Predict the 3D structure of the following.
Amino acid sequence: MNTPVTVLLSALPPAAGWAVHAWRLRACLNTARRDPLTGLRTRDGFTRRATVLLKDPRAVVVLADVDRFKQINDTHGHAAGDALLKATADRLTHYVQGSGVAGRLGGDEFAAVVIDDHGTAGDLLAALQGVLARPVDGQDPAMRTTVSLGWVRAADFPDDDLSGLLRRADEAMYAAKQARAGLRRAGLGRLFATVTGRRAGRTGARTGVPVVGVAA
């Protein structure tokens, strides 16, 4: 049975028909690159936009991870967990606004790349960390947690691509989570030793390598 779009395509001149077809393909791709729960870009869509932003030396890469997310899900239910993820995504989107891009990498892990026009990323991220810890509107006030953030300036590691910078931000985030510090910056000290992005203590990481914390 013909759909309205199919009928429309058949009635249009070939050039116009291909234009509509191309538009539909782009719309489908854009939908596929959006996380259905949060509306953020998925890893693929995030990577495409973030790679462009990293051409600017003022770019900052941020990794965010919701603390105790499994406990929230187990205690309050998956609907409450979904509400927490959606609130985190909305607040992160407000932070990046028009100067960057945010994405959901999977589970309770989010990433962002922003352009730090005034060199104040540290202060702004500290404020963001507090905003991310606020209770979710319409949810049980007891359902609250914190979000650990790790960040890195692209200019500090000019030879790193997005993958390398995300790994450094991930290490800084892990240090913040372990120290319950909320926020850590990579680049002011050595990171945790990794192999293919695995932190010390994870399966596949090297052993016998000293772990050095990252300066705030």
Summary: The first helix runs from residue 4 to 11.
